[in-house]
Amino acid sequence: MTFLKRSFFGAAIYLAVIFVLGQADYADRPIINFANYFYLAVMVAVPLTLFFPSISRTSPYVPLVVWAGVYLALLQFIDRSLSAADELSIIVLEFALLEVGVWLAHRLAMQISHAESIMDALALSAFPHRAHDIEAENQRIKIELTRSRRYHRPLSVLVIQLEVEDDKATLEMLKSVQHDLLSRFTSARVAQIIDDRIRQTDLVLRDHKGRFIVLCPETDLPNASLLAKRIAQAIKERTSLGVLWGVAAFPEEALTFEDLLQKARERLIHAMSVPEEAVAVVESQQVQQ
């Protein structure tokens, strides 16, 4: 965590320097008069670089070049005389400060990503499972769907999500890093339970919202619904957490994985919107369809 602390400290010092340089006055005049679009560029560039994981996984030169181009474009199309002095030294300083900010944000994002990877590794070591990121398994998803289409075999997609009430209770109990760590261990434990209930040929995935997607070859809708009930019951027994689930089947309800996933998610949303006593009716309708 030493590098993470240093990155946070560097980002804080950077923001403090910009604030001091921009607000410091001498004889009622600003010592350095930054342009308004420079502040806007910093306010946009730093958060975007910090909070978008896809940017932090790229080389730091990518966001540096992009924001250098953005600044030069703003310099060409916006009249500086309306908000700042048109001096070369100040322009160079603005450009340098913007690039430093992007670099510090990228470095901090990398350290946060590294810390999250450590927490994921700890959770996985405690509760080993074979759930994969859904975006990393596009090729296998296509293979399974193509095989089912070619040989006219059934295939089902099952979506599983922890109930919202449980997540709110967790948020109330723990804050910040504690909540994040508990969420990762809980997710790993749920993935392990799902792993215990499915076949080796089934594929377990996770989407960007933390929901589990189970791709079940050679499984029709009634059997997939039965599997979902068994998984939900096992999660309830082992963790005391409730889950919501939705199922869609190929080829009766959709012909592509995206449509199957959307159909299963719609049923999941529908189950979340109805009263608890009506969930059983929704489940029975899924089996009958």
Instruction: Please identify the structural class as seen in this structure.
Output: alpha+beta
* CATH domain class name of the largest domain: Alpha Beta
Kindly report the average pLDDT value: 77
> What Rg is obtained from the alpha carbons, in whole angstroms?
26 Å
Strand order of the largest sheet: 3-5-6-4-7
Tally of individual helices: 11
End-to-end separation: 52 Å
CATH superfamily heading of the largest domain: Reverse transcriptase/Diguanylate cyclase domain
Report the CATH architecture of the largest domain.
2-Layer Sandwich
CATH topology call of the largest domain = Alpha-Beta Plaits
Helix proportion range: 55-70%
Number of domains: 2
The outline comes out as elongated
Low-confidence stretches: 173-177, 273-283, 285-289
Largest sheet: 5 strands, mixed
Beta-strand level of the residues, as a percent range?
5-15%
What's the count of strands? Answer: 7
Order of helices and strands: HEEHHHHEHEHHEEHEHH
